[in-house]
Amino acid sequence: MRRVAVIATLAALAALAIASSAASAAAPRVPPSFVGTVIDGPLFEPYVNLQAELDEMVRTGVGSVRVMVDWREAQPYAKWSDVPPDQMARFRDEGGVPTDFSLVDNAVTGAVTRRMTILPIVLAAPNWTARYPNNFNSPPKGTKTFAAFSGALAKRYGPTGTFWSENPTLPKRPIRHWQFWNEPSLIHFWADQPFERAYVALVRAARAKVKAVDPGARIVLAGLPNKSWPELEKIYKLRARNLFDIVAIHPFTAYVSGVLKILRANREVMARYGDRKKPLWVTELSWTSARGQADWTYGNETTERGQAKKLTEAYKMLAARRSELKLQRVYWYTWLTLDSHPHYPFDYAGLSRLETDASITRKPAFMEMRKTALGLQRCKAKSGMADRCAS
């Protein structure tokens, strides 16, 4: 998903000796869900074969996908009288709001047939409920509409969801984890700063709606980037500890060793507020191959070869530190990009590149992801199911 942020390189904090020792430590075998990727952007263009790309993810060793649920696309109209007549058929009624689940249905169908674990990230307020219409970074007005939409998602994809009753031939793998919003500590995702009071109120309301549908659902805090540990502490200071089950961090930094430094800093905050045992997820990890390509820098740009090298080092390091950090999942940002935007380095973050003729080029990082992910799972190859090694 789009990001406009200044990424702290944390060069002063990065001790290269830590990276060397961590990378050299013997990494234990990891479950398939440990290695994940974000699926967004050009992957959902109509001329891209999403199902074929999901097959590639499985063969590459990716066992979990983080899917953007674009609220604007699902509920663009506040009421039925606003819907153009020629669009009526694509909507269903959810609490009086016309709702289109088709994009999410497609992603869920593809993932569950391959036994991949799904993490939806719910964000982006439609104009009719946005505090600042026509702005992607606008929070919703209040919490009621976002909470209602989150509850509707749980009713569709949770354990008793309508999606499963409408698709009885699919493997039933209900969605039990929900992530509300993305990087709210950045003005480019949450226009009103400071963010913490309004964001905590949003989580409280949405959590209540989801839990009413699925009491066993688990709430993942929005991923926090840059100097994330002070931002996490702001959330804890609002006595929000019981509102989320998992802390999510986006440790963007110039050095692989900086990732470990960032995660340890966040674990220290969690420990101070009584959350030593709470799991930690990295819901975005990336080095972009934008060096020499984009005229803007966030501090984590490198070459295609450098991107591949850092990916391998980071996943091996984090697998080795999985127990220490109580780290359960690491999602690479992202699977597919255009690698063409002159002012946005994260447009070069993909493991693969979508060419202008709609063909897909696999970058060196893609090859390293396959080698690293399968190695960490002790697989020579993957079958058609994400949680099963081929013999």
Q: Write down the CATH class.
A: Alpha Beta
| Percentage beta strand | 5-15%
Mean pLDDT: 92
SSE pattern, N- to C-terminal: HEHEHEEHEHHEHEEHEHEHHEEEEH
Query: What are the segments in which pLDDT stays under 50 over at least 5 consecutive residues?
Result: 1-25
Largest sheet, strands/sense/barrel: 9 strands, parallel
What are its keywords?
single chain, 391 residues, alpha/beta, TIM Barrel, 9-stranded parallel β-sheet, 12 helices, globular
Written account of the structure:
- With 391 residues, this protein is of the alpha/beta class.
- It has a single domain, classed as TIM Barrel.
- Helix content is 34%, strand content 15%.
- It contains twelve helices and 14 strands.
- Strand 9 (247-250), helix 9 and strand 10 form a beta-alpha-beta unit.
- The longest helix has 18 residues, at 196-213.
List the topology elements.
Layout: H1 16-24, E1 35-39, H2 50-60, E2 64-70, H3 71-74, E3 92-94, E4 97-99, H4 102-112, E5 117-123, H5 144-157, H6 162-166, E6 177-180, H7 196-213, E7 218-220, E8 224-225, H8 228-237, E9 247-250, H9 256-272, E10 280-285, H10 304-320, H11 322-325, E11 327-332, E12 336-337, E13 352-354, E14 360-362, H12 364-376
Helix pairs in contact: 1-9, 1-10, 5-7, 8-9, 9-10, 10-12
